[in-house]
Structures
1.
Amino acid sequence: MKVTVLIPGVLRGVVDGAASVEVDVPPPATLGAALDVLAASYPGLDRRLRDERAGLRRYVNFYVNGEECRRLEGPGTPLPEGTEVQILPSVAGG
Amino acid sequence: MTVVVAIGTRKGLWLARSEDRVSWQVDGPHHAMQEVYAVAFDSREGLRLLAGVSSPHFGPGVSLSDDLGASWEESSTPPIAFPVQDASLERVWQLQPAPASQPGVVWAGTQPSALFKSTDGGRSFEFVEGLWNHPHRPDWGEGFGGQAVHTIVPDPADPDRVLVAMSTGGVYRTADGGKSWEARNKGIKAYFYPDPWPEFGQCVHKVAQHPALASRFYAQNHHGVYRSDDGGDTWQSIAAGLPTDFGFAMVVHPHDPDTIFTFPIEADGRRFPPEGKCRVYRSTDAGATWTALGAGLPDTFYSAVMRDAMCTDDAPVSGVYFGSRSGEVYASPDEGETWHQVAAHLPDVMAVRAVVVPS
């Protein structure tokens, strides 16, 4: 399953400057599975998106075709062919 | 002589450099917008700067520099990771290189309360299971800052002996390299419990030791300043000569085991320096008497100094350094007699460490 992951500017340094990364996710394709595939190539990205238990970092949002994954099924959210996953840091801090 | 001071703040790391410890050049921020609660200089082989960095968005890590901040190395895989199901790393509170006889060994104290050990100079760390599995752990409390091992004191001679401390957990000691741990809080009062003398649960803010006198420890507590002369088995108050027994920092002079520095704060309920004056207190007789040091420090100062935001260098005439919640950093080139401002208007200072750069 082909999925496009959009990388925020602040994290592009750990994906060789890429604004987006294409990943091929084996079935059943979920957000968590897509992040696993991404992690294999870019461990430095993964540790910024997920903790060591693969929990999504609280202040990072994952929009699956425009809907934040926590309103869907979290890491278990299914990804249909051609899904766009947009990663955006949430507005937080002072 | 060049001295470099690493200043960890809530929004990055600054480095200050001086030839005379009076005038300073400050550069930064390094790791901008990341909380830097732990910094350490490791001068056992070359000079390495270690920083525990934590992005509010992207999580914690450890960053290393072997060229005093010109470049940084951060592992792509998490250098510190909990191998257990019920915890993940929230923050690195302490990075502590072991004595020179154990090259490569660096200890890390974390939130949640755990200890990790590196044998490769801080690139990767192994979980110390013995402390995590301690039967007291479910009852360790969570101070306002979070539940963390914030203090690690490796024995200067015996690699199997390490003391750790945590807020609302207390002091623990191992004599077998971390396999087993014993609470060591006898004599430390925990006034915030119905029984103020429990085996553990004391709110220890910082413990310090001089390497030439391994049996002695000094502790600044959440109310209470103590000394142990028997390796932590028992503690006696040394607060009588201080204006208050509250504070966070405790630092031992690098060349004199009887000389210590602290920064008293009025009380738990009034976290300001006594009379609103910025003062370091020094004892040269192991806590029996204390002297206020304020030459060059402000007389109107309603800020506080955090547990790791005070340190010394190891120059023949030792420098003393501290940073405040209000983003000011001061240095004394003469063991506390006079003070000079290193930096101001930084974010909240969480950690300060100084090193004499090897020539």
2.
Amino acid sequence: MASFTPYTYIQCPCHDTTTTTTTTSQSRPAEDAPSPTSPHSSDDDDDDHNFDPRAPRSNYSLYPLEYLLWCDVCHQIRCPRCVAEELVTIYCPNCLFEVASSSLKTEGNRCTRSCFQCPICIGPLAVQSLESAPEPSLLSADNANTATTPAGPWILSCSYCNWNSSEIGVKFDKPQGIFAQLQKLRHGEDSHSKHAVGGDTSPTKTDSVAATMKARFSAMRSFYSAQNAIANPSSGLGDYGFSSPGALSRIMSIYSGNNAGSHKQKSKGTMTREADSASEGFRALDLDDSSAVSQLRRDGWDSTVIGDQAKSQVEEGARFAEELWPIPYLLRTKRSKRCPVCRHIISKPESKVANTRFRMRLVANTTIPSISIKPFNPPPALLKPLQPVQYLLTFRNPLFDEVKVTLATPATTPGRFASRVTVLCPQFQMDPSTESGMYLVDDALKDDNKDIQGRRRRGTEGGTHQAEAGKIWERGHNWVTIVVEVVPASLSLEAPPALLRKEGEPEPDLSPLKEDEDVLEIPMFVRLEWEGDVSHDQMSTSTGKEKDAREKKELAYWCTIGIGRISQE
Amino acid sequence: MSSSNKRQSVLPRMPAGPKAPVNFSSSITIADSALLAGKHTINIGSESVVHPRARLDSALGRITIGRRCVVHERTSLGAAPASAPASDPTILNTQGGVTIGDYATLEVGAVVEAGGTVVGEGCVVGIGCRIGSGAKLGKHCTLTPLSEIQPGEEVPDFTVVYSNGTRRLDRRGITELKHKAQARQIEVLKRLIPSNPTKFQ
């Protein structure tokens, strides 16, 4: 509670794709209904309506700068939510083996090699041999021996929590192709004999093993497709299959009108029936929990699964620890990202699994200035209501061009508790960024001087109000610091006197403080202007005849700046 | 290069107090740089291995290490209890040492507090674990790295403590194999660690 890290979130332009379409095409009143919190929403098609960082929809468009991508062609910010993703590589995170998308369709989204996770602790499982004795050899010294003479059944074992697959009675004949062996054990004929190891087998368990989801689904599908084939020729009025002679005769009978009634009865007779036996994929819910109860009594709390374990299982429904199966690793993907508007690729990873580099990655922080927030004076833990506080915002220019920045904030923050915000210098220029080390040294020297000067100034004046309106507080070779003054609102919930309230104004919301409503967030509109190189698509049309052509560029976006929490006294 | 070129420790040397009374089996392996201190007896059973810079402090009570144990580097046996549990502050007052059962392994940086603490036979105490004062570990327990056992706690046999204190039973049934492996490991360690028990006697 006491500690609060200031933050800056930037709004992706994808948030108002709906509103831009409404201006051109039809309007959707449900979407554009003015929210009761934002004061300017009555004129909602207006360009200058304020952005409310607390609106529920804002959650989906606000991102830290590091998350944002940049489309060079559209010249716009792109967020993880609005980019179009394409799979580049599908691979297993454990064995780093690439999986073809065709085999993905037939074999599912899990690794079909010998990669398994422990069902207890999700650690990786290793294949180890059981010696001729029933004890598995889990220790390295013994393994070295058995490696030369691989013998006996094999098990999967977890080296972290000491789980092994013999606890659920699973042993393998050979150390390769564990996935197929496990599939066979689980879904094959062996499933009944396997559990004889565990002693008494509860009926629920064998049922759930025998009729797995997959087997049931395929049984059901074949049953119902057969049923459909029977039913279709005499199906109701809704779907005519004109090619089938049955439908044709039915139409004829409707028009002739002679034996319509009798036909209807006939069609009722050939109605599809529902699956009702196990071979058709039907499974009656077993309401007899006595075996589960007795097992719970016998083995206690420790034999049950916890929610996370049950959720990470491939097939649902596990209730006891012995129903937990090794989890084949979920495959992962590497994805390339495209701009949703111009379809240009803005991020593309190297297709080799082991290579973590990117072939292409256009990130927003190569264009958008980063904003860092620092309190002017050493901050108290919480902001005191109605006491002005000053903050230093440092903008750092990543571009190699001079950038003109214009800032705008609403005078009061949106929401129930309106704090006053004043940007003392809403317009300034940032010098270009350079990679040359010389400038950095210069900058460092300058910084030192500034620091001394600043301290001196603070020493002589002693007050907190050295920041002048309209002036930059500090500037470096590619950064500028400005001062923002904030008067935090009081969080007391008192109804305003009835006399002051205007006619027809809505009842003030006096509900208790909601979560994070005491956080002071400033919506800020940032507009950048600079002269840069002509962007790529125009270059190609002009066939590069003016290499050093410059064009004026402009970018504007909303961001929200979290300053701190307001004290609740 | 002579050994005088070695960097000397800047820390002040251990106060050269009276040596702790020891009772070593003749077949143990104890590194020269192990630290033994305290006024109670330190017993070490046959074929046990004490790595360099393991600290055995018998100030609060007798330390007994069983047969074929491995005490790794920077472990601390008989450390002063960190804090008394609020429910029962009397635990700290009980004088008592540390008892380590046969075939136990204490991995790097493990701390076993003094006060009648027992580590059972065949236990594996993982890296950086802390066993509170007066806690009793049953036989063949496994503590995964950085686990903590509260003071005065009793842990049943074959318990595996993992993932922030979650517990389960080890049903592998491989105690015999583990013993064999421990014996093999000790054979190797004997060759690797120069033993100097006379320094402490």
